[in-house]
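This section describes the prediction task in plain terms. A model, or a person checking by hand, is given the sequence of a single protein chain and must write out its three-dimensional structure as a string of tokens. No templates, partner chains or ligands are provided. The sample shown here is typical of the held-out split.
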Amino acid sequence: MSSRAEGAQRLVNRHALYSAAAGLVPVPLVDLAATTGIQIKMLKELADNYGVPFQADRGKSIIGALIGGVVPTRLAYGLGGSLIKAVPIIGGLLGMVTAPAFASASTYAIGKVFMSHFESGGTLLDFDPEKMRQHFVTEYEAASKAGVTSTPAPVAEVVAGRVGKAAAAVQPG
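The expected answer:
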């Protein structure tokens, strides 16, 4: 792996961690907005890493087109993880697991797709979301299977700690 690719991988890993943390935001939909901002920032940093000109509006529309074309159930998982936080007690607990997992996996997959595209000499101007969608799905599924515990370990510890404390507080005894 080239030093440029190694730097890019570190960027992707770091932003996946940030996205998982953003998934912990307790306000429904605010977590998704924070994750989107993190993904745009990651894309800019990846573009800078590869010497590719970056345009924020173009980056936003590409990410939207890439994610928007994914099977609705995958997106519903992330949106559902965000919205479920509105349900008292149990919603917050479930949202603390599902939303960070979706945010982290989707950010990681976006990063890997753009690493591949930039490594092959691509730019934002010639990025075709339709052609890259299957690559995104493959990376997303791999990151989802790995789970929050293998990508952003510190966030998994926070989630586990919060879920454990909240579950203990709810149990009679």
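For orientation: Residues 3-170 form one domain.
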